[in-house]
Backbone:
């Protein structure tokens, strides 16, 4: 996986997801951490995309908070990327290629 092929907003979202997992004491960064970061990203396109699809963002944020609250917690340490998150990141590159985009952007991560 080539992180140099990830757009700035995608890198920011991954860093924010890792930060969220660390603050919550989660041992792994999972796809829900990334989705939570994407939904809250300033100037990002994920929230407008979801709203256009009819997603109630208040309900979504509430559901994300509840789901993240159920993850196990540990004291200390740096969270690692879960296998499921690595799969999401790996699948984003072919989506970008399919859409003829040079970089993996946040919409590819969402897909």
Residues:
């Amino acid at each position: 996986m080539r992180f140099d092929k990830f757009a700035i907003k995608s890198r920011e979202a991954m860093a924010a997801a890792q930060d969220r997992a660390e603050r919550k004491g989660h041992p792994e960064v999972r796809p829900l951490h990334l989705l939570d970061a994407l939904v809250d990203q300033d100037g990002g396109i994920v929230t407008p995309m979801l709203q256009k699809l009819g997603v109630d963002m208040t309900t979504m944020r509430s559901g994300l908070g509840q789901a993240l609250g159920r993850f196990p917690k540990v004291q200390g340490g740096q969270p690692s990327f879960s296998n499921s998150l690595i799969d999401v990141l790996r699948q984003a590159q072919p989506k970008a290629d399919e859409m003829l985009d040079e970089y993996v952007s946040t919409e590819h991560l969402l897909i």
User: Anything to note?
Assistant: The helical segments are 8-23, 31-40, 46-52, 57-69, 83-98, 106-110. The mean pLDDT is 94. Strands lie at 28-29, 80-81.
